[in-house]
Amino acid sequence: MTANPRTGTDAPPEERTGTDVPPGAPPYRVGRARSVLRVVAIASCLPYIGLKTAWMAGSRLGIPDGSPLLDGGTALAVANGATVLMDGGVVVLALLLTRPWGLRVPAWLLVLPMWVASGLLLPIMTAYPVQLVVRLLGGGGPVGEGRSQTFLETWVFGVVYGGFIVQGLALGSLFALYARERWGHLWRGRLRDLPATPTAPALRATAVAAASATLVPGVTHLLWATGSTAGLEPARAADRTSDFYVLEAVSLLFVVVTAVGGLLLAFRRTGGLSLRLPLVLAWCGSAQMACWGGWLSLAGLMGAGDAADRPTAATTVTYAVQMLAGALVVTLGAYFLAERAAASALSARGELDESRGS
Q1: pTM, two decimal places
Q2: Residues 171, 165: Cα–Cα separation, whole Å
């Protein structure tokens, strides 16, 4: 077997065909761990997809009498169909991350849906276990307490959120393994080893703008987490439980994570810090702020028929600025990695030309 000219290995071309696979990388092979994670990720989608499909078919499984879901009409059916497609996207991602043809997918076509999935799943993965612990310690009633008790049966939340947590863990593990294979060379080293680049001033300006923008959602989530009702919709203010406070505290945590991740990447003052840490912080924080903020904005608009549920100016501005801050940080991270990839490719090309010349 001849060496694959695109990878420098003896792997056949169909095993290693990513356009940004580093030279000398080993052949892409799916081990048992990845196969198990793929099965787990796909299986964890079934409860949610099954429930949504049943509801679209007219079933009232898990929906109590008097629930507004019974009067959702066409808008609710469309929303259910859209969320089924979104969860079905997890199945596609699980396959893409564990098959050799997944390396042929352009980076943005994989990274963008993974970033969105991270932003939607991370708040649930972090907040829901804490909410359960708080309830066990007597800090609040079960899911479904108050107005939301007429929305869905309590067991539905456990089944759905439990499935989301398993999805996030399995899909996140698969993506980490995939990213290490395809792009691991881009985040090796420490912050102090990063060279000065022409885009450094622009990255710093972007990081400062993003950190400044996080002040708006940061202050708002801090107020709500500590008991203030300023800017809250009347319905949410009346329906606060321990779950609400936990979710607001988690949202505040992600605001801090986003600002810190962006500033570390741009200013690089902590020289001994591994490059992976600020990249992980920027990824998780920007995804949660942008995607969760967008999801809550959309949910607020869909429930705007009741005056008590209508988004206030404060919530609208909070989520809009939250999305802006997340978008700025992910843009900063994307430019940073693109610059690293270009430098890596240029270095590899120079080494190749030098070896040919010798």
Answers
A1: 0.86
A2: 10
